[in-house]
User: Fold this.
Amino acid sequence: MTRQSSPPSTQKVSSRLGRFSSILVLLGLILLWYGISALNLFPAYAFPSPASVLVSFQEELTAGRLLNDIVASLWRVAIGFVLAVGLGVPIGLWLGQHLQARQALVPMLNFFRFLSPLAWIPFAILWFHIGDKPAIFLIFMATFFPMTLATMVAVASIPSIYFRVAKDYNYSGIELLTQVTFPAVLPQVITALRMSYGIAWVVIVAAEMVGCQDGLGYGIWEARNGLRLDSAVCYMIVIGSLGMGIDRLFAELTKLPAVRWGYER
Amino acid sequence: MYLAGMMKRAGIKIVIGVVAVITVLGILRYRPFTGSGAAVVHKGSNKHADRELTVGFLPVTCHLTCPVTDFASKTTATNTNFNSRVFTDFPTVVSALEAKQVQATFMIVPLAMKLREQGVPVKICYLGHRDGSEVVVGKNSKIRSLVDLKGKKVAVPSLFSNQNFVLHKLMVDYQMKPTDINFVVLPPPDMPTSLAAGAIDAYFVGEPFCAKAELDGIGRVLYYARDIWPSFISCALVVHEDLIKSQPDMVQDLVRGIAQSGAWAETHRAEAAKLVAPYYRQDEKVLKYVLTADPKRVSYVNLTPTDKDLARIEDMGLSMGLLTKRTPMDELIDRKFVPDVIREAPIDVAQIPSPKK
Assistant:
């Protein structure tokens, strides 16, 4: 969660400094990698050098495999995640307002939340065969439950004064939901979005290692099978960078005027 | 009200954004405007085959005839076009077969027996190759025979692999107890590195994962499979009975193609390495080493499954308790598609694409 407690001017300077130092850390990391591989501390098959990774990066890119794999993974995450959010948030909103339903369903939701989505892999393949569908199912299973529970908790923790005021204004039903409940929980829902997206991105890589014929996770598995760790590292870099980039986009949501109040405390 | 209006606008923007992202990804994913995916190119004399079959394989030399048949069906005259589909692990292959997404695939023989035992109607129609597996130990280790592996860790690719079965048979021969060796199941690509790291003391797996350890200077061969079990069988071509019933002529084409590809690979080893390297996405050097360093290392002839060969494997599986029910050999094997005379596939070596560097 971003906290903006410092005055604007110093914040600008420190964020520029922060960005600069993050680049320094990154460069340092690459240098360290280069140094270790140049010293031949580990044999080449166990520790690919930056140069060999760069070559394999170019190889995968020119063969068109990398782009295809990126699109495949993004597609699966997008569909699975949108389905989970589209179902999870409304269900969470409803559960948050109905104590009895909450008592009945929360243990079940919690049970499924703690089942690793990877445990579903054999069933995903049996039920959805091979291709996009099993991966989308796994993403859904990984993100639906945390999304639902987070939304529910957010609704349940809305100060009761909000509802009392809403009653004074004669809000009820859909109006109460769109005018009071949803705006009140939106900041927490966005935080939950970021977190479950993080889970989705971690899961997609593992999910694609079986039952898929393309995708970033499949790329790593195939690199292993082909005894090409340099190509595996190239895929790891892509996975990390993409995950980080998309998280930045989600972070932008927290700057929307409608939700910024939720983070400024 | 002001806040609500602002939220509404932001909400609409977000919805539009999400829809746009999904649309773009969907278009990139399925490319609806570029026609029907990868068009099959037939350069053969008959210009086009009127039917297609997808055949599953893993990038191991035991499945080498699969991509060779794929290549041959696209460059020579055939009635069926074969598309080889690479898998990376056997559980996925099994699921694909059960779901009938592939109706013909290569797989380890005991796994096919297990499937049959569980009621999946599959038949073994041909074999992958003979030999082609080795017990590898650390290059500088003092292990000279199986007895030295007592109390050590040995990796096998699957409990249902013939490698696992054969090692147990050898242990019986050496009068060792089944608990004398700690068996661990590891994915084959991880075996050479695990050996180098000292996590395991030996492994028994199909090529090219043994050659890799030799070429990297990590390991040496303790036993060739043929030393333990002459004409060792690891994998077989497994076909779903539904396909055999519905399109027997296609299965006929398949088994003929696989058999002819084997006969061709037996005599064109370096060319075969070059041909399959892009299908396997492996280093041609390693494959070439496996195929050419010692011709006895792998062989692609004499691949008609016999009752005797497979009964021996089944006996071992039953005695180890991994198989629970004896499947009669005539239920397991279907030999009627194997051609009487196996000619070499008429592959034009000049058409094999050179690797781009």
Remarks:
- The longest strand of chain B covers residues 51-57.
- The longest helix of chain B spans residues 2-30.
